[in-house]
Amino acid sequence: MREKSFYNAMFLYHVFVVWYRYQFPMISDEDRTFAGRWKFLTHWNAMLQIAYYLACGVLVNSSIYERWEPVRDQAFHIIILPLSVFVSIMFWGLYLYDRDLVFPAHLDKVVTPFFNHQKHSAVVLWTFLEAAIVHHDTPGHFEGHVIAALFCASYLTVVLWVHAAGGVWAYPILGVLNWAGKAVFSSISIGVYVAFYRVGLALSGYLHNLSFNVAKLD
Fold first, then answer.
1. Alpha-carbon span 197 to 193, nearest angstrom
2. What is d(CA 16, CA 127) in angstroms, rounded to the nearest whole number?
């Protein structure tokens, strides 16, 4: 019952955040360009969160739940948790270094601070909360790394396709770097994502054990 309530609450929360974003007028250059918001990893994260929590909420008490659990655990460990952390740390890291590389000042007129923190800050807290209250089995070592790498490759393929088809880069930093720089930046990004995946495995287990031990004290 606790898991179902959590999943339903997270589904409604992420739907609200996406709905809230679509209330903003599409006056930024990024929204007008080819592929719109769908070329941004932040939007991918939001839509994947919605799909994940919808599936979890629907299937948690169903007859196929036991078959769904391994899929849920893989999705959480390989995509949901590391992607949320990656989006947050990469966004705020680049923002603090030079915000024009990821979130130019003119976007402040379109995107409210509330929404910005919901998409780039709070999402990490919710994934940590899930790690604490829901037990997730760890994916196989080789399998987990392969799926993580394939997910990264799929997004990079979309980024390259958007540039080839629409002539725009998803993020300003890609337009500043030469092709060698783009390759280095992409390789580092993949390495960071995989590192977050590895750290997330340990952190998830630690948070769940901590919450379980605290619950036994009550």
1. 6
2. 17
